[in-house]
Amino acid sequence: MNYTDNECPVCHRKFTDDDDVVVCPDCGTPHHRDCWNTLQHCANAQLHGSDFAYVNPITPRERYTDNADAAEPRIRIRAVRCPQCGGMNTRGSDRCEHCGANLENDPRRVAPGIGALNTDIIPPNVVIDGIPADEEAAYIGMGSTGYIYRFLAMDRRQTKMSWNWGGAIFGPLWLFYRKMYKTGLLYIVLSLLVAVACIPQGFGDFIRSFAALYAQAPDYYTLMAFIQDHMPAINYWQYYLFTGFSFAVRILLAFFGDYLYRRKVSSSILNIRTQASNMEQYMYLLRRKGGTSVLMPFLFLLYYVYIQTAVITGIALLLGR
């Protein structure tokens, strides 16, 4: 336990790293050994028996070093509340840093969610953007070890670039799968603008003619023949704009998808910290608001195939193109 810069209740001098400190076994109050020997009892002995427990007025900022980056010391986040005194402790502590209570059998000393993280690869207390790896793992869920490994690699290299297979292969579907809805909405707006710019001349007249033919209930082959003969072709610049946009999105998500997701993870977790009142609620919110979504990519596909097509058709008719 670290009592550096706290006052001894007897001599009122601050403890240093070199001091020999004696902690009261009843309430956890620290003393200089000489002061304890002089007083022969705890300075707060009169409070014993009244559920009094010493609370460290200064939370020491313990530092540790990630083996993968020994040149950069990082600050541990305190996330385990002592059941006896209520003080917050560094995850993994055997004893409370404030009152000395035994935490070895307290399941909260290791945060829930650690099972999603391969601790043989990523130590759970490694900190990324001020957040322990196991908390990020609880938020990320499936695939957390791979993402956190790349986050750490980007942090060490001081770069925003990485390689994300999900973004490269699935493009915007990956955004919605990882609940990156703001970025996904930006893609929807941009893709709609590109699609409108790529509407071929005469598309509105084609839609009107096709609707008139369809009202006559022709057979399938007649409809296909009409589409083949009358569907207006897009210009070369429209073709390159449309295909170039789709290709550019995948390239950007392939190289910068991890960076975008890292920002999403850290900002969401820091926001969740302001909402949670205890560790149990905090871990619950991490899992509920994080993780992945199967429904949203499905809804995006429905929008892209049906709704966006209807919107583009409506715009073409409105513009008279």
Report what the structure shows.
The protein is mainly α. It has eleven helices and eight strands. The chain is rod-shaped, with a radius of gyration of 31 Å.
What is the topological layout?
Blueprint: E1 21-23, E2 30-32, H1 33-39, E3 63-65, E4 73-75, E5 78-81, E6 88-90, E7 127-128, E8 131-132, H2 133-140, H3 144-157, H4 165-170, H5 172-177, H6 181-197, H7 203-214, H8 220-230, H9 236-275, H10 279-289, H11 295-319
Antiparallel strand pairs: 1-2, 3-4, 5-6, 7-8
Helix pairs in contact: 2-3, 2-10, 6-9, 6-11, 7-8, 7-11, 9-10
Helix content: 40-55%
> How many strands, which pairing sense, and closed or not: the largest β-sheet?
2 strands, antiparallel
What is the average of the pLDDT values? Answer: 82
- The helix-and-strand class reads mainly alpha
Rg (C-alpha, Å): 31 Å
User: Could you give the order of the helices and strands?
Assistant: EEHEEEEEEHHHHHHHHHH
How would you write the strand order of the largest sheet? 1-2
Report the strand count.
Answer: 8
Distance from first to last alpha carbon: 75 Å
Tally of separate helices: 11
Low-confidence segments, ≥5 residues, pLDDT <50? Answer: 58-77, 107-115
Could you say which overall geometry the principal axes of the C-alpha atoms support? rod-shaped
Strand content: 5-15%
